[in-house]
Amino acid sequence: MHPDAPLPFAETLSVLQTLVPPKLLSPRVGIICGSGLSGLGGSLKEVVLISYDRLPGFVQSTVPGHKSFLAFGLIGSVPVVAMLGRFHPYEGHKLSSVVYPVRVMAKMGVKNIIITNAAGALNPNLAVGTIVVVHDHIALPNLTGMNPLLGPQIDSSYSRFLPISDAYSRSLRRLVFQAAHQLSLDREALAEGTYAWVSGPTYETAAEGRFLRAAGADVVGMSTVPEVLAAREEGMNVMVLSLVTNMVVIPEGYKSVREEVEAELAGKVTEAVVDEVVSHEEVLTLGREKGDLMKALVEKVVEFIGNGNGGAV
Ligand SMILES: O=P(O)(O)O[C@@H]1C[C@H](O)[C@@H](CO)O1
Ligand SMILES: Nc1nc2[nH]cnc2c(=O)[nH]1
After folding, report:
1. How far is CA 259 from each of CA 114, 206, 254, 273, rounded to the nearest angstrom?
2. Which residue out of 63, 245, 279 has the highest number of ligand 2 atoms within 8 Å of its CB and is therefore the one to mutate?
3. Catalytic residue positions?
4. CATH superfamily assigned to domain 20-311
5. pLDDT tens digit string along 252-277?
6. Which of 205, 223, 262, 270 has a C-alpha 20 to 30 A away from that of 97?
7. Cα(309)–Cα(141) distance, integer angstroms
8. Binding site for a purine D-ribonucleoside: which residues?
Protein backbone atom coordinates (compact mmCIF):
# COMPACT_ATOMS: atom_id res chain seq x y z
CA MET A 1 0.00 0.00 0.00
CA HIS A 2 1.13 3.55 -0.72
CA PRO A 3 1.59 6.37 1.80
CA ASP A 4 -1.67 7.74 3.14
CA ALA A 5 -3.34 4.62 1.70
CA PRO A 6 -5.69 2.94 1.12
CA LEU A 7 -6.24 4.42 -2.32
CA PRO A 8 -9.87 3.92 -3.37
CA PHE A 9 -9.29 2.57 -6.88
CA ALA A 10 -12.19 0.10 -6.77
CA GLU A 11 -14.64 2.82 -5.71
CA THR A 12 -13.41 5.32 -8.33
CA LEU A 13 -13.58 2.74 -11.13
CA SER A 14 -17.02 1.62 -10.04
CA VAL A 15 -18.35 5.22 -10.18
CA LEU A 16 -16.77 5.68 -13.61
CA GLN A 17 -18.44 2.49 -14.84
CA THR A 18 -21.82 3.89 -13.92
CA LEU A 19 -21.21 7.31 -15.52
CA VAL A 20 -19.16 6.62 -18.66
CA PRO A 21 -20.60 4.80 -21.68
CA PRO A 22 -18.79 1.49 -22.41
CA LYS A 23 -17.49 2.85 -25.71
CA LEU A 24 -15.45 5.50 -23.85
CA LEU A 25 -14.47 3.43 -20.83
CA SER A 26 -11.16 2.12 -22.23
CA PRO A 27 -9.32 5.27 -23.28
CA ARG A 28 -6.23 4.88 -25.47
CA VAL A 29 -4.67 8.17 -24.42
CA GLY A 30 -4.68 10.18 -21.20
CA ILE A 31 -4.28 13.96 -21.30
CA ILE A 32 -3.56 16.43 -18.51
CA CYS A 33 -4.38 20.05 -19.29
CA GLY A 34 -2.10 22.72 -17.82
CA SER A 35 -2.96 26.25 -16.69
CA GLY A 36 -5.34 27.88 -19.15
CA LEU A 37 -5.22 24.86 -21.45
CA SER A 38 -8.46 23.08 -20.54
CA GLY A 39 -10.08 24.25 -23.80
CA LEU A 40 -9.17 20.86 -25.20
CA GLY A 41 -12.24 19.46 -23.45
CA GLY A 42 -14.44 21.51 -25.77
CA SER A 43 -13.26 19.68 -28.85
CA LEU A 44 -13.87 16.12 -27.64
CA LYS A 45 -16.69 14.35 -29.48
CA GLU A 46 -19.42 12.57 -27.50
CA VAL A 47 -17.90 14.13 -24.42
CA VAL A 48 -18.91 13.07 -20.92
CA LEU A 49 -17.78 15.42 -18.14
CA ILE A 50 -17.49 14.12 -14.61
CA SER A 51 -16.97 16.54 -11.76
CA TYR A 52 -14.02 15.57 -9.56
CA ASP A 53 -16.23 15.78 -6.49
CA ARG A 54 -18.11 12.70 -7.72
CA LEU A 55 -14.92 10.64 -7.88
CA PRO A 56 -13.57 9.00 -4.71
CA GLY A 57 -9.88 9.81 -4.26
CA PHE A 58 -10.01 12.93 -6.41
CA VAL A 59 -9.44 16.32 -4.79
CA GLN A 60 -10.42 19.70 -6.24
CA SER A 61 -8.36 22.00 -8.39
CA THR A 62 -8.30 25.41 -6.73
CA VAL A 63 -6.14 27.33 -9.21
CA PRO A 64 -7.64 29.87 -11.66
CA GLY A 65 -7.37 28.43 -15.17
CA HIS A 66 -7.96 24.88 -13.95
CA LYS A 67 -11.39 23.27 -13.95
CA SER A 68 -12.31 20.21 -11.90
CA PHE A 69 -13.65 17.80 -14.51
CA LEU A 70 -12.54 14.48 -15.91
CA ALA A 71 -13.56 14.40 -19.57
CA PHE A 72 -14.13 11.24 -21.59
CA GLY A 73 -14.62 11.52 -25.33
CA LEU A 74 -13.26 10.91 -28.79
CA ILE A 75 -10.52 12.68 -30.70
CA GLY A 76 -11.24 11.50 -34.23
CA SER A 77 -12.12 7.89 -33.45
CA VAL A 78 -9.68 7.53 -30.54
CA PRO A 79 -11.17 7.34 -27.04
CA VAL A 80 -9.34 9.61 -24.60
CA VAL A 81 -9.62 10.72 -21.00
CA ALA A 82 -8.57 14.25 -20.11
CA MET A 83 -8.07 16.00 -16.79
CA LEU A 84 -9.51 19.48 -17.26
CA GLY A 85 -7.58 20.85 -14.33
CA ARG A 86 -4.76 19.27 -12.37
CA PHE A 87 -3.63 19.20 -8.77
CA HIS A 88 -0.46 20.87 -7.46
CA PRO A 89 1.32 20.21 -4.18
CA TYR A 90 1.33 23.98 -3.46
CA GLU A 91 -2.48 23.86 -3.20
CA GLY A 92 -1.98 21.72 -0.13
CA HIS A 93 -2.64 18.44 -1.90
CA LYS A 94 -0.59 15.40 -0.94
CA LEU A 95 1.65 14.02 -3.65
CA SER A 96 -0.38 10.80 -3.58
CA SER A 97 -3.50 12.87 -4.41
CA VAL A 98 -1.68 14.82 -7.11
CA VAL A 99 -0.86 11.62 -9.00
CA TYR A 100 -3.99 9.62 -8.16
CA PRO A 101 -5.77 10.46 -11.46
CA VAL A 102 -2.74 9.19 -13.39
CA ARG A 103 -2.96 5.89 -11.55
CA VAL A 104 -6.70 5.70 -12.25
CA MET A 105 -5.98 6.27 -15.95
CA ALA A 106 -3.50 3.39 -15.82
CA LYS A 107 -6.12 1.15 -14.20
CA MET A 108 -8.44 2.03 -17.11
CA GLY A 109 -5.81 0.78 -19.55
CA VAL A 110 -4.23 4.06 -20.67
CA LYS A 111 -0.78 3.36 -22.16
CA ASN A 112 0.10 6.82 -23.49
CA ILE A 113 -0.17 10.06 -21.56
CA ILE A 114 0.19 13.61 -22.87
CA ILE A 115 0.91 16.11 -20.10
CA THR A 116 0.74 19.84 -20.78
CA ASN A 117 1.75 22.77 -18.62
CA ALA A 118 2.42 26.48 -18.61
CA ALA A 119 6.04 27.33 -17.85
CA GLY A 120 8.46 30.21 -17.60
CA ALA A 121 11.43 30.30 -19.97
CA LEU A 122 14.92 30.27 -18.48
CA ASN A 123 16.60 29.83 -21.85
CA PRO A 124 16.85 33.29 -23.45
CA ASN A 125 16.56 31.73 -26.92
CA LEU A 126 12.99 30.65 -26.22
CA ALA A 127 10.23 33.09 -27.11
CA VAL A 128 6.96 33.48 -25.25
CA GLY A 129 4.40 31.32 -27.06
CA THR A 130 6.85 28.56 -27.97
CA ILE A 131 5.82 25.00 -27.15
CA VAL A 132 8.70 23.06 -25.64
CA VAL A 133 8.77 19.30 -26.19
CA VAL A 134 10.28 18.18 -22.91
CA HIS A 135 13.01 15.55 -23.09
CA ASP A 136 14.36 15.68 -19.55
CA HIS A 137 13.77 17.26 -16.19
CA ILE A 138 15.50 18.64 -13.11
CA ALA A 139 13.44 18.18 -9.98
CA LEU A 140 15.02 19.71 -6.91
CA PRO A 141 12.04 18.56 -4.78
CA ASN A 142 12.69 14.95 -5.87
CA LEU A 143 16.35 15.20 -5.01
CA THR A 144 15.55 16.56 -1.57
CA GLY A 145 12.85 14.16 -0.45
CA MET A 146 9.59 15.25 -2.12
CA ASN A 147 8.89 12.41 -4.51
CA PRO A 148 5.49 10.81 -5.14
CA LEU A 149 7.09 7.36 -5.21
CA LEU A 150 8.45 7.65 -1.65
CA GLY A 151 6.95 5.14 0.74
CA PRO A 152 5.85 1.53 0.69
CA GLN A 153 5.32 0.09 -2.77
CA ILE A 154 1.74 -0.14 -4.02
CA ASP A 155 2.42 -3.83 -4.60
CA SER A 156 5.33 -6.05 -5.51
CA SER A 157 4.67 -5.71 -9.23
CA TYR A 158 5.98 -2.12 -9.06
CA SER A 159 9.70 -1.46 -9.44
CA ARG A 160 11.30 -0.25 -6.20
CA PHE A 161 14.04 1.67 -8.00
CA LEU A 162 12.51 3.21 -11.08
CA PRO A 163 14.95 4.41 -13.75
CA ILE A 164 13.76 7.68 -15.26
CA SER A 165 16.59 8.62 -17.60
CA ASP A 166 14.24 7.44 -20.38
CA ALA A 167 11.08 8.99 -18.92
CA TYR A 168 10.14 11.06 -21.97
CA SER A 169 9.27 8.70 -24.82
CA ARG A 170 11.38 9.33 -27.88
CA SER A 171 8.70 7.89 -30.17
CA LEU A 172 6.06 10.22 -28.77
CA ARG A 173 8.44 13.18 -29.08
CA ARG A 174 8.98 12.27 -32.71
CA LEU A 175 5.20 12.31 -33.21
CA VAL A 176 4.99 15.94 -32.03
CA PHE A 177 7.46 17.08 -34.67
CA GLN A 178 5.68 15.00 -37.32
CA ALA A 179 2.41 16.59 -36.18
CA ALA A 180 3.95 20.09 -36.44
CA HIS A 181 5.03 19.27 -39.98
CA GLN A 182 1.53 18.11 -40.95
CA LEU A 183 0.05 21.25 -39.40
CA SER A 184 2.55 23.40 -41.35
CA LEU A 185 3.78 25.10 -38.18
CA ASP A 186 6.78 27.41 -38.35
CA ARG A 187 9.97 25.78 -37.11
CA GLU A 188 10.10 28.33 -34.25
CA ALA A 189 6.72 27.20 -32.91
CA LEU A 190 8.33 24.17 -31.26
CA ALA A 191 11.55 23.65 -29.33
CA GLU A 192 13.09 20.84 -27.28
CA GLY A 193 14.15 21.31 -23.70
CA THR A 194 14.55 20.40 -20.05
CA TYR A 195 11.82 21.25 -17.51
CA ALA A 196 12.73 22.25 -13.97
CA TRP A 197 10.13 21.38 -11.37
CA VAL A 198 9.83 23.67 -8.36
CA SER A 199 7.17 23.46 -5.69
CA GLY A 200 5.88 27.02 -6.11
CA PRO A 201 3.65 28.87 -5.41
CA THR A 202 6.24 31.65 -5.53
CA TYR A 203 7.78 32.46 -8.89
CA GLU A 204 11.57 32.50 -9.07
CA THR A 205 13.90 35.17 -7.80
CA ALA A 206 16.45 36.33 -10.36
CA ALA A 207 19.17 34.34 -8.56
CA GLU A 208 17.02 31.18 -8.58
CA GLY A 209 16.37 31.69 -12.28
CA ARG A 210 20.12 31.97 -12.94
CA PHE A 211 20.76 28.89 -10.80
CA LEU A 212 18.23 26.73 -12.67
CA ARG A 213 19.51 27.97 -16.03
CA ALA A 214 23.10 27.21 -15.01
CA ALA A 215 21.96 23.72 -14.02
CA GLY A 216 20.72 23.15 -17.56
CA ALA A 217 16.99 23.84 -17.41
CA ASP A 218 15.22 25.57 -20.29
CA VAL A 219 11.82 26.11 -18.66
CA VAL A 220 10.50 26.05 -15.12
CA GLY A 221 7.10 25.19 -13.71
CA MET A 222 5.21 23.96 -10.67
CA SER A 223 3.69 20.69 -11.88
CA THR A 224 4.11 17.75 -14.24
CA VAL A 225 7.08 15.88 -12.76
CA PRO A 226 5.04 14.07 -10.08
CA GLU A 227 2.61 12.96 -12.82
CA VAL A 228 5.49 11.86 -15.05
CA LEU A 229 6.96 9.71 -12.26
CA ALA A 230 3.65 8.04 -11.47
CA ALA A 231 2.94 7.46 -15.16
CA ARG A 232 6.35 5.84 -15.62
CA GLU A 233 5.82 3.72 -12.52
CA GLU A 234 2.53 2.61 -14.08
CA GLY A 235 4.38 1.70 -17.29
CA MET A 236 2.95 4.44 -19.53
CA ASN A 237 4.65 6.19 -22.45
CA VAL A 238 4.96 9.86 -21.50
CA MET A 239 4.97 13.02 -23.55
CA VAL A 240 5.19 16.52 -22.03
CA LEU A 241 4.48 19.81 -23.78
CA SER A 242 5.31 23.06 -21.98
CA LEU A 243 3.84 26.30 -23.26
CA VAL A 244 6.21 29.19 -22.57
CA THR A 245 3.88 31.78 -21.04
CA ASN A 246 6.52 34.21 -19.76
CA MET A 247 10.23 34.78 -19.53
CA VAL A 248 11.61 34.16 -16.06
CA VAL A 249 12.90 37.50 -14.84
CA ILE A 250 16.69 37.22 -15.07
CA PRO A 251 18.09 40.76 -15.51
CA GLU A 252 21.36 40.92 -17.47
CA GLY A 253 23.30 42.25 -14.53
CA TYR A 254 22.53 43.61 -11.09
CA LYS A 255 22.14 47.39 -11.20
CA SER A 256 23.77 48.55 -7.98
CA VAL A 257 21.57 50.68 -5.75
CA ARG A 258 24.67 52.10 -4.03
CA GLU A 259 26.04 53.29 -7.37
CA GLU A 260 22.66 54.73 -8.31
CA VAL A 261 22.44 56.75 -5.09
CA GLU A 262 26.09 57.84 -5.30
CA ALA A 263 25.57 59.00 -8.90
CA GLU A 264 22.47 60.97 -7.91
CA LEU A 265 24.33 62.59 -5.01
CA ALA A 266 27.02 63.60 -7.49
CA GLY A 267 24.34 65.34 -9.54
CA LYS A 268 24.25 62.79 -12.37
CA VAL A 269 21.01 61.81 -14.08
CA THR A 270 20.36 58.05 -13.66
CA GLU A 271 18.07 55.78 -15.63
CA ALA A 272 15.07 54.65 -13.60
CA VAL A 273 15.20 50.92 -12.86
CA VAL A 274 11.83 49.18 -12.82
CA ASP A 275 11.82 45.66 -11.39
CA GLU A 276 9.76 43.29 -13.54
CA VAL A 277 7.49 40.62 -12.11
CA VAL A 278 5.50 37.68 -13.49
CA SER A 279 1.80 37.17 -12.85
CA HIS A 280 -0.59 34.26 -13.15
CA GLU A 281 -2.89 36.50 -15.26
CA GLU A 282 -0.09 36.79 -17.81
CA VAL A 283 0.24 32.99 -17.75
CA LEU A 284 -3.49 32.52 -18.34
CA THR A 285 -3.64 35.12 -21.12
CA LEU A 286 -0.91 33.33 -23.04
CA GLY A 287 -2.65 30.01 -22.40
CA ARG A 288 -5.81 31.42 -23.99
CA GLU A 289 -3.87 32.83 -26.94
CA LYS A 290 -1.98 29.62 -27.66
CA GLY A 291 -4.60 27.14 -26.46
CA ASP A 292 -5.73 26.36 -30.01
CA LEU A 293 -2.19 25.58 -31.12
CA MET A 294 -1.65 23.24 -28.17
CA LYS A 295 -5.01 21.61 -28.90
CA ALA A 296 -4.19 21.11 -32.58
CA LEU A 297 -0.86 19.47 -31.73
CA VAL A 298 -2.34 17.19 -29.09
CA GLU A 299 -5.18 16.16 -31.40
CA LYS A 300 -2.78 15.33 -34.22
CA VAL A 301 -0.54 13.29 -31.93
CA VAL A 302 -3.57 11.39 -30.64
CA GLU A 303 -4.61 10.71 -34.22
CA PHE A 304 -1.12 9.32 -34.93
CA ILE A 305 -1.24 7.16 -31.82
CA GLY A 306 -4.65 5.90 -32.93
CA ASN A 307 -3.15 4.90 -36.26
CA GLY A 308 -0.40 3.00 -34.46
CA ASN A 309 2.32 5.40 -35.63
CA GLY A 310 5.58 6.20 -33.96
CA GLY A 311 6.10 2.99 -32.03
CA ALA A 312 3.82 4.18 -29.23
CA VAL A 313 1.05 1.76 -28.34
O1 LIG B 1 -0.54 23.53 -14.00
P2 LIG B 1 0.53 24.29 -14.68
O3 LIG B 1 1.89 23.75 -14.43
O4 LIG B 1 0.26 24.47 -16.17
O5 LIG B 1 0.48 25.75 -14.04
C6 LIG B 1 1.53 26.70 -14.03
C7 LIG B 1 2.38 26.50 -12.79
C8 LIG B 1 1.52 27.15 -11.73
O9 LIG B 1 0.52 26.27 -11.32
C10 LIG B 1 0.90 28.31 -12.45
C11 LIG B 1 1.71 29.55 -12.25
O12 LIG B 1 1.25 30.61 -13.05
O13 LIG B 1 0.92 27.96 -13.85
N1 LIG C 1 7.87 28.31 -11.45
C2 LIG C 1 7.27 28.90 -12.48
N3 LIG C 1 6.13 28.39 -12.94
C4 LIG C 1 5.55 29.01 -13.98
N5 LIG C 1 4.43 28.71 -14.65
C6 LIG C 1 4.26 29.63 -15.62
N7 LIG C 1 5.26 30.52 -15.58
C8 LIG C 1 6.07 30.14 -14.57
C9 LIG C 1 7.30 30.67 -14.05
O10 LIG C 1 7.83 31.67 -14.51
N11 LIG C 1 7.84 30.00 -13.01
Report:
1. 50, 20, 11, 12
2. 245
3. 35, 66, 88, 90-91, 118, 222-223, 246, 280
4. Nucleoside phosphorylase domain (3.40.50.1580)
5. 777 888 988 999 999 998 888 777 88
6. 205
7. 35
8. 204, 246
